């Protein structure tokens, strides 16, 4: 057939009967979810491919981005023959394995050498195929991405016997069969090939447009689905309404039923219930003012108000919306969201009541209640603390507790303790420390402490303090009195012992004195023995005086007042007093120059001096001096 005879044919030549082998259909049928195949459809793809394939009568294919066939057509006998021969060389009935084996020459030329590089590089490719033709491939673009490629075989099969023999060997087919195919091939002029390439480019663009449109449709459908799911699951009501006094609703989401008790159809349409009627009358003007203020300032409006539901229940709602301007710039529509915050409001009210109750308890507590933040700044200071320290609450809030109340000599120790508490979350739950009031009075406070945290972070140390100043003073006085009582009891025991000893000793002295006096009467005063008996009598009388002193100390001597010379009486007691006060204390005796006579029992005098010296001795901690002085003094 001549080069231009195919143009005058009523139907395509014998080698151009357009059909696809059965295995082509099977390959296409495996593509059930490819973007190009799904978006365009098999019939549309075949129509588009046929538009340029009819010009050349060779072979064409449309590939998805991953190499899957969207459609594949072989129109010429040459292409069908070589494709079938190379398919047989794969040695498997599984078409997917055949595509991957690398010996399906026609597939390798179309996909691996032409379509795949076009997809990867985004540029047309033009190669010589293994069957002696050329393959032109174009990428398919959609929404800025490459989604696949088209291929078109063009040109005439080789007629040189050597090249035909080489192809026959490569495809394992006889030369005679190939020559028979060549006899039916109709040659196309180069201009027709160029025309087919232009139609190929148009088809690539058209398929891209179809895919892009489909992607847009799918995205829109997904967006609508997501929006529907979102609106259906929102804990409230999305709306679009007119900017009028009735807030006429044009759209409400499904959440309106839970929020208002009304179906969506009851709030929209010609006979709808105005949303304004749901708003509690006392709140309607506020709602109107807030919305119009937001519209005028071109900003979202946010408000909280009350509505009355279909069942008569009053609810608190939170609303946020925005005015939507029309083409003329007038805000005729509002869009927004309304949600039920009744439980939140109740919780807020309960929290406020609880906080007020706690503040009242803290304020009325008969103890200091102080709260300190992480920097020891005062954040809580109750009424009792004000009364005790003299500071008003507004004077101390934000002030550093350590600098304001702790005595200077203790501040470093308290700062170190505070750093330990805040850094390690350790705390002494109970301790005592002094504070300085506004007037400078020093008070001792006993504290009970608790650290409050927020998510593990230090929030506040809450301390409850009790003024124990007077208690500790009373405890100290009691301790001193107890010590004095113990000492008195000890002295009483010593006195009883001394009294017992004195009684026994006094009995023996009575015998000695009586015997000495009787012996002296029988001895001549001039005799030496008489002098010895006088010494015995004097010593016994002196010992009797010591015994009287012991009995006076033990309070077992009968009171017998008589005229006493103070100087002589005290002088006789000095040796006993020195033994009583100890060696580390000096006893100084300064008697008056004139005689000092008093009427009293000698034992009382002994007791007075003994008590005075003992008290003086107890007041001296180490080495000291006690002075006893007599004189005549007149008192008014």
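-> sequence recovered:
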């Amino acid at each position: 057939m001549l080069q231009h005879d195919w143009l005058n044919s009523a139907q395509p030549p014998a080698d151009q009967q357009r059909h696809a082998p059965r295995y082509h259909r099977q390959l296409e049928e495996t593509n059930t979810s490819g973007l190009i195949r799904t978006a365009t459809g098999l019939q549309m793809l075949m129509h588009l491919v046929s538009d340029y394939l009819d010009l050349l009568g060779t072979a064409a294919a449309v590939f998805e981005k991953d190499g899957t066939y969207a459609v594949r057509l072989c129109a010429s006998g040459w292409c069908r023959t070589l494709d079938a021969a190379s398919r047989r060389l794969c040695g498997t009935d599984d078409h997917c394995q055949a595509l991957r084996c690398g010996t399906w020459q026609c597939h390798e030329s179309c996909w691996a050498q032409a379509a795949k590089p076009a997809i990867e590089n985004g540029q047309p490719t033009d190669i010589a195929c293994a069957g002696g033709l050329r393959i032109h491939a174009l990428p398919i673009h959609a929404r800025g991405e490459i989604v696949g490629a088209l291929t078109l075989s063009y040109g005439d099969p080789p007629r040189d016997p050597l090249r035909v023999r080489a192809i026959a060997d490569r495809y394992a087919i006889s030369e005679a069969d190939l020559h028979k195919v060549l006899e039916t091939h109709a040659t196309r002029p180069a201009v027709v090939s160029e025309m087919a390439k232009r139609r190929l480019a148009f088809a690539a663009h058209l398929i891209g447009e179809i895919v892009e449109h489909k992607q847009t449709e799918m995205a829109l459908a997904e967006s609508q689905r997501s929006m529907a799911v979102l609106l259906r699951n929102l804990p409230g009501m999305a709306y679009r309404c007119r900017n009028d006094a009735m807030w006429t609703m044009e759209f409400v989401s499904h959440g309106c039923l839970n929020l208002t008790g009304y179906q969506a159809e009851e709030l929209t349409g010609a006979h709808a219930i105005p949303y304004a009627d749901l708003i509690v009358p006392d709140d309607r003007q506020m709602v109107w003012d807030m919305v119009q203020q937001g519209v005028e300032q071109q900003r979202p409006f946010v408000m909280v108000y009350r509505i009355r539901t279909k069942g008569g229940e009053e609810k608190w709602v939170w609303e946020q919306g925005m005015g939507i301007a029309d083409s003329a710039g007038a805000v005729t529509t509002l869009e927004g969201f309304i949600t039920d915050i009744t439980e939140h409001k109740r919780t807020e009210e309960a929290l406020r009541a609880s906080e007020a109750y706690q503040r009242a308890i803290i304020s009325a507590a008969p103890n200091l209640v102080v709260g300190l933040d992480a920097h020891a700044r005062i954040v809580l200071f109750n009424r009792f603390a004000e009364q005790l320290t003299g500071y008003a609450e507004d004077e101390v809030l934000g002030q550093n507790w350590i600098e304001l109340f702790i005595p200077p000599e203790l501040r470093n120790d308290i700062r170190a303790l505070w750093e330990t508490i805040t850094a390690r979350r350790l705390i002494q739950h109970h301790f005592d420390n002094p504070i300085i009031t506004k007037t400078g009075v020093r008070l001792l406070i006993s504290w009970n402490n608790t650290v409050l945290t927020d998510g593990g972070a230090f929030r506040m140390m809450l301390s409850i303090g009790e003024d124990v100043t007077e208690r500790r003073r009373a405890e100290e006085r009691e301790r001193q009195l107890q010590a004095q009582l113990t000492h008195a009891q000890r002295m009483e025991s010593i006195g009883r012992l001394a009294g017992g000893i004195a009684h026994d000793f006094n009995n023996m002295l009575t015998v000695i004195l009586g015997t000495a006096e009787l012996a002296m009467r029988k001895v001549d005063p001039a005799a030496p023995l008489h002098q010895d008996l006088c010494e015995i009598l004097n010593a016994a009388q002196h010992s009797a005086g010591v015994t009287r002193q012991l009995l006076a100390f033990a309070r077992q001597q009968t009171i017998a007042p008589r005229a006493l010379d103070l100087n002589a009486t005290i002088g006789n007691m000095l040796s006993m007093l020195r033994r009583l006060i100890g060696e580390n204390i000096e006893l100084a005796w300064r008697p008056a120059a004139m005689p000092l006579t008093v009427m009293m029992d000698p034992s009382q005098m002994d007791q007075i001096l003994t008590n005075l010296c003992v008290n003086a001795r107890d007041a001296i901690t180490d080495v000291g001096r006690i002075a006893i002085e007599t004189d005549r003094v007149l008192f008014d």
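Residues 109 and 298 are 63 Å apart (CA to CA).
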